[in-house]
Write a structure and sequence with these properties.
The chain is an alpha/beta fold. It is 30% helix and 25% strand. The protein contains eleven helices and 21 strands. The radius of gyration is 22 Å and the shape is globular. Bound molecules: 5'-O-[hydroxy(phenylacetyl)phosphoryl]adenosine. The site of 5'-O-[hydroxy(phenylacetyl)phosphoryl]adenosine has 19 residues, from helix 6, strand 7, strand 8 and strand 12. The site of 5'-O-[hydroxy(phenylacetyl)phosphoryl]adenosine (DLL) has 19 residues, from helix 6, strand 7, strand 8 and strand 12.
């Protein structure tokens, strides 16, 4: 398989560390000299750019969080004048103002290179026709992937989201060979395709780049089977760049991090102590090159671990595991930590179930209640009480084994739960704290 930037992506760990250290020293000084926010933060912490002598010295620097971006809305963290910007994106906040992120011309070039590497790692080729089903707009996903695919010479169909039947018509008529979407939307497209009576054999799809929300291995297997393509998981976040931080290669054993651009650390989310990354913890990322808005020790809230061993594909870049969840979407139900991904893993293990589900948490008489609503894969057993009860019991037992708590289980008819075209909303925590 091809490697886009062989020199960097296969460099020795030692050379990578040297490159990272050089860039880290530069970016810390750059941020300190140009962004009053960093100067104040570092002065208060009693640390100077010249204190960064080794990579471990990064631990002397304070963290940055999403609320720092919010407090400095919209341009407070810029290290360049607004006139030097080439692009502005924003990610929708859960409340109030969006998080604004900006790029200089140089940042745009770095971003495009990062995504191009991941496109090639995912199996993308210059003769591909790629249908991009992310929402075009302020969201970084669509334009980010668009640029990367264009860079490798592919033809891009900027289909955006919406109107799934039309998406499928375009995919078929234009002969799309690659699909870019959220994994939940990819599955939805597969369902609509089936409903339209179109078989995946009539399509030319061969690779799929999915990301921007969590997806389990089981979900990827289902997408691969239904759309007959090779799926990869891809990770990124607007604050750092958008898509392009990391992505899977053909061996699907973790997402290769573009480590010369993003320095990863894993911390214990409660004590904030750095770890060696071999166990799950919170990912902290530092942009080593970003000129517009340097992000130094940004707490992503995403939970993963890092493997530094070389990969069979030849790349030497560290690989982050599929996300286990976010520190802020971890549910505490009856005092037990529950990750939505654990529930998804159980549900996808049952072939009788579809892949659309909802997790609903309520509180009655001060007691937490967990309900899992999940669709049947088809309606073949809807009228068969015995078969339904048997299935329910087996799922209930499997959920209890994994979660250690009881969940009320509701099986619903195929295609009865709401679909989303962007990131799927699956967790409904109705408790009032
Ligand atoms: O979702 C960037 C992106 C676009 C990545 C397209 C990949 C493909 P935001 O909208 O800022 O940026 O959301 C970032 O989404 O902190 C994670 O919690 C989640 N996320 C992103 N990729 C994955 C993934 C884009 N592969 C937030 N698996 C991140 C699980 C993901 N969660």
């Amino acid at each position: 398989m091809k490697i886009y930037d062989k020199k960097t992506e296969t460099m020795s760990r030692r050379s990578m560390a040297a490159l990272q250290l050089k860039r880290l020293k530069e970016i810390v000084k750059y941020a300190y000299d140009r962004v009053p926010f960093y100067r104040k933060k570092y002065d208060e912490a009693g640390v100077k750019p010249s204190d960064i002598k080794t990579l471990e010295d990064i631990r002397k620097l304070p963290f940055v969080t999403k609320s720092d971006l919010r407090d400095n809305y919209p341009y407070g963290l810029l290290a360049v004048p607004v006139s030097d910007l080439a692009r502005i994106h924003a990610s929708s906040g859960t409340s109030g103002k969006p998080t604004v992120v900006a790029y200089t011309k140089e940042d745009m070039e770095d971003w495009t290179e990062c995504v191009a590497r991941l496109v090639v790692a995912a199996g993308g080729r210059s003769d591909d026709i790629v249908q991009i089903c992310f929402g075009y707009g302020l969201f970084t996903g669509a334009l980010g992937l668009h640029q990367g695919w264009e860079r490798i010479g592919a033809a891009v169909i900027p289909a955006s989201t919406g109107n799934s039947e039309r998406q499928i018509m375009l995919m078929k008529d234009l002969g799309a060979t690659a699909l870019v979407a959220t994994p939940s939307y990819a599955l939805h497209l597969a369902e609509v395709m089936e409903k339209m009576g179109i078989s995946p054999d009539e399509m030319k799809l061969r690779v799929g780049m999915f990301g921007s929300e969590a997806s389990s291995e089981e979900m990827h297997r289902e997408i691969a089977e239904k759309l007959r393509l090779f799926p990869t998981d891809n990770y990124g976040l607007s604050e750092l760049i958008g898509p392009g931080v990391s992505g899977e290669c053909e061996y699907k054993c973790g997402m290769h991090i573009n480590e010369d651009y993003f320095y990863p650390e894993i911390i214990d989310p409660t004590t904030l102590a750095p770890t060696d990354g071999s166990d799950y913890g919170e990912l902290v990322l530092t942009s080593l090159t970003k000129k517009s808005m340097p992000m130094i020790r940004y707490r992503t809230k995403d939970i993963t671990k890092i493997d530094y061993s070389p990969c069979k594909c030849g790349r030497t870049t560290a690989r982050m595991a599929k996300l286990k969840g976010r520190t802020d979407d971890m549910l505490i139900i009856k005092g037990v930590n529950v990750f939505p991904s654990q529930i998804e893993g159980v549900l996808l293990g049952f072939s009788e179930l579809g892949s659309t589900y909802q997790i609903i948490v309520t509180r009655e008489d001060y007691k937490d209640k967990l309900e899992v609503k999940v669709e049947l894969a088809d309606d073949s057993i809807v009228g068969d009480y015995g078969a339904l009860e048997n299935l329910k019991n087996r799922i209930h037992h499997a959920l209890r084994t994994v979660l250690q708590i009881d969940a009320k289980l509701t099986l619903t008819e195929h295609m009865s739960l709401a679909r989303s075209e962007g990131k799927a909303k699956r967790v409904f925590d109705m408790r009032k704290y």
